[in-house]
Amino acid sequence: xxxxxxxxxxxxxxxxxxxxxxxxxxxxxxxxxxxxxxxxxxxxxxxxxxxxxxxxxxxxxxxxxxxxxxxxxxxxxxxxxxxxxxxxxxxxxxxxxxxxxxxxxxxxxxxxxxxxxxxxxxxxxxxxxxxxxxxxxxxxxxxxxxxxxxxxxxxxxxxxxxxxxxxxxxxxxxxxxxxxxxxxxxxxxxxxxxxxxxxxxxxxxxxxxxxxxxxxxxxxxxxxxxxxxxxxxxxxxxxxxxxxxxxxxxxxxxxxxxxxxxxxxxxxxxxxxxxxxxxxxxxxxxxxxxxxxxxxxxxxxxxxxxxxxxxxxxxxxxxxxxxxxxxxxxxxxxxxxxxxxxxxxxxxxxxxxxxxxxxxxxxxxxxxxxxxxxxxxxxxxxxxxxxxxxxxxxxxxxxxxxxxxxxxxxxxxxxxxxxxxxxxxxxxxxxxxxxxxxxxxxxxxxxxxxxxxxxxxxxxx
Length: 461
What we know:
The protein has four domains: 4-133, Response regulator (Rossmann fold); 148-310, 3-Layer(aba) Sandwich (Rossmann fold), CATH 3.40.50; 314-389, Helicase, Ruva Protein, domain 3; 395-461, Arc Repressor Mutant, subunit A (Orthogonal Bundle), CATH 1.10.10. The chain starts with a strand and ends in a 13-residue tail after the last helix. α10 (252-261) packs across α12 (298-304). By secondary structure, it is of the alpha/beta class. The relative contact order is 0.08. The radius of gyration is 29 Å and the shape is elongated. Helices cover 46% and strands 13% of the residues. It has 19 helices and 16 strands. The protein has helices at residues 12-24, 35-44, 61-71, 86-94, 107-136, 148-160, 177-187, 205-213, 230-233, 252-261, 287-292, 298-304, 320-336, 345-353, 359-373, 386-389, 409-423, 428-435, 439-448; strands at residues 4-8, 28-32, 49-53, 77-81, 99-102, 167-170, 195-199, 214-215, 227-228, 238-242, 263-264, 273-274, 278-283, 307-310, 342-343, 378-379.
């Protein structure tokens, strides 16, 4: 990250040295040899960061920093001093400096400090506009997010909402699949009808069958009265089959027939009953792999997968993390009657760095906890869970400048494939698509890595 840098030092040679070094590294630079000139230049122009020497004739660096913080708090100040004592550092930080470095310094160290300061400024600007973004967010029936992956989802939902096409929503746990189903219903021509959800993983097979298809009086023990199944209860509305990947294999043929024929036979009944219901299903499983492993019927998969909506994980949605965080802050501040209005830049940086394995649900819990604990108007780093406070970005290293650490190309590929599989929640189909491989090739490589037994998949060849 580069940007516009204002350099302030009463030593002209030092100004020239810093300017030359930073320009070679892509920064735009302007230099001034007095604090008074620098402050006037900053007042008339826009800079991303100010570098100021501490000891200068006339107004010193501390005084300049204080004036910049008062008039332009959005511009970070990096102090340079030859006196690297704790007292000097404390004075600079108290004056509002973003950071300080001591002479002599390496230009690459200065570059890294400036890049962090510029990124910090950008994050402050992002945090300050979050309330407007949340208020003006143009999502889809309550769904929030402006990232390209979410925009792609909105476009697809908008095109299919007005139809009765069966929809399969897939994605990791916590990505908001039921919210998508409800949004589809709210935008559809059936919005006046009922929205009926059922979690296929939450009940045993016999009870699930009775819930879906209904039963007559006396159909089984304790069936003291007839009960209409959810297909009938959702008539002229939408039936949402959540976690359909967990549906027992023995029940899947009956579900397939119901969806195909638009008729159901209640338990114990002699006649079928027609229904007019739109079917939307959701799963956090890789159903294509489940089909290949004979854990899910292929014909049912193709019947429910007419329109496929793939919900992106939160880690793939960039700054949507902050948009959602601000939305949850507003919600829980109202619920808890607390005057919490936003995020500190440091807390926002932590939220952006975290991987969010639990996706939006985990973020919501994090913000609820933070709002409940904080005593300030802005959530601070210390208000976040410990694992988020201590999280550090992880990277897969596939190369090095040290020849002794270089690895064969085959090992680079192995690491990259496994990292992609991890990042995509173990979804082999999505991993193959992302890497530009067919599933047969991916399965062969995974077997070679010892992650699949021979013959586990049904790919030909």
